[in-house]
Amino acid sequence: MKDADARVAEEIKKARAQATEIVDKAHAQANQIVDKAKTDALLEAARVKASAQADIDGMVGKAREALRGQVAALAVQGASKIVQREIDPAAHKALLDQLVTEI
């Protein structure tokens, strides 16, 4: 009987060891999955950020070009007004002040 009890105790001990090993492996796999998910999320966030920054840079460039065109048009318009008529210095200053306000 003692021999059978010893075998049962040994089998229980082995089963517990196997259960512990399975649980430990499951924890390790879970940690790997979480770490991979974090890494993937960080990479995706960086990609989205870079894409958004590229879009912003493109919009800023377009806005600058549009502003340059508007300033150039206003400068040409102002210069043509000045060239079209001869005026006294006071009127000339008033015209320039008006152009500065418009710009």
Write up this protein.
This protein has helices at residues 2-84, 89-102. The chain is mainly α and 103 residues long. The protein has one domain (2-102). The radius of gyration is 40 Å and the shape is rod-shaped. The termini are far apart.
Descriptors:
mainly alpha; 103 residues
What oligomeric state is this? single chain
Largest sheet: none
Proportion in helices: over 70%
How many extended strands?
0
Number of domains: 1
Shape: rod-shaped
Mean pLDDT: 87
Radius of gyration: 40 Å
How much strand content do the residues show? under 5%
Number of helices: 2
Quick structural summary:
It is built from two helices and no strands. By secondary structure, the protein is mostly helical. The chain has one domain (2-102).
Structural topology:
Elements lengths: L1 H83 L4 H14 L1
Helix pairs in contact: 1-2
